[in-house]
């Protein structure tokens, strides 16, 4: 049954990791730009409004760090899976080559 099989096109996991890294870099730039624009508004707030603005910006910073951290983790996991898959595939190839050699007497 085809649904029971697992396969990966060579380089697909690494390419996925590269796409995630590119997306993260783009997002980092956009978030930094937006953060700069929001920070410029900080001086317009006074009193409890200023306190609320600071609280919101602290939340923003924490949430964006968590988001970009998740992308970093996802990229690292894709790379790790690619490495493990390649090592397993190489080991299977070596085992089959050794078995084939034992059958042919080479």
From TrEMBL:
It holds the Pfam family WXG100. It comes from the Bacteria. Belongs to the WXG100 family. This is ESAT-6-like protein. It comes from Serinibacter arcticus. The lineage of its organism: Bacteria, Bacillati, Actinomycetota, Actinomycetes, Micrococcales.
């Amino acid at each position: 049954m085809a649904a029971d099989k697992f396969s990966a096109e060579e380089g697909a996991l690494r390419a996925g990791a590269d796409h995630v890294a590119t997306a993260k870099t783009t997002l980092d730039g956009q978030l930094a730009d937006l953060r700069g624009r929001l920070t410029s508004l900080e001086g317009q707030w006074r009193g409890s409004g200023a306190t609320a603005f600071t609280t919101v910006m602290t939340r923003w910073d924490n949430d964006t760090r968590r988001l970009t951290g998740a992308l970093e983790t996802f990229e690292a996991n894709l790379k790790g899976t690619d490495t493990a898959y390649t090592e397993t595939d190489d080991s299977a190839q070596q085992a089959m080559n050794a078995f084939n050699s034992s059958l042919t007497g080479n």
